[in-house]
Design goal:
With about 140 residues, the chain is of the alpha/beta class. The chain has 7 helices and 4 strands, in the order H-E-H-E-H-E-H-H-E-H-H. The protein starts with a helix and ends with a helix.
Amino acid sequence: MNIAEYIRDDVIRKRLQQSPVLVVYDPANRYRQLCGQLADDDIAVVDASESSIESRDAALQALRTLGRPDGGPQKLLVYVPALRPNSDEERQTDPFSIYTACGGLFPDGDGEEYFSLCLKAKPDHATEIRQVFAENPNP
């Protein structure tokens, strides 16, 4: 399993199993493709990269359909290419913070920073990973 598959399947997909709603904050655009790959009949994925207004509407519509007995998605993943809000003031201005209140967010803590995830995905290659990050802090 490569690093991308680990992050997609063992981190993000597992978070969606724990909570029906997940917001992925990603200012470096590392996880956009991974999040898009999770879209299926069970998981609605809303990408806020192109339009904040349209994606807010899409997220709200997807949230309304979660868990309906007539089918449709059971989970909602919202991809936001921005820094995660940390203060109450930042959460008030973030149009997607309501979805974190309904579920969870990623990354959540130092253990879910990109460097840490790379080390967890490939523990046998820790030296090489550290070297790559030492040469380029944003590989």
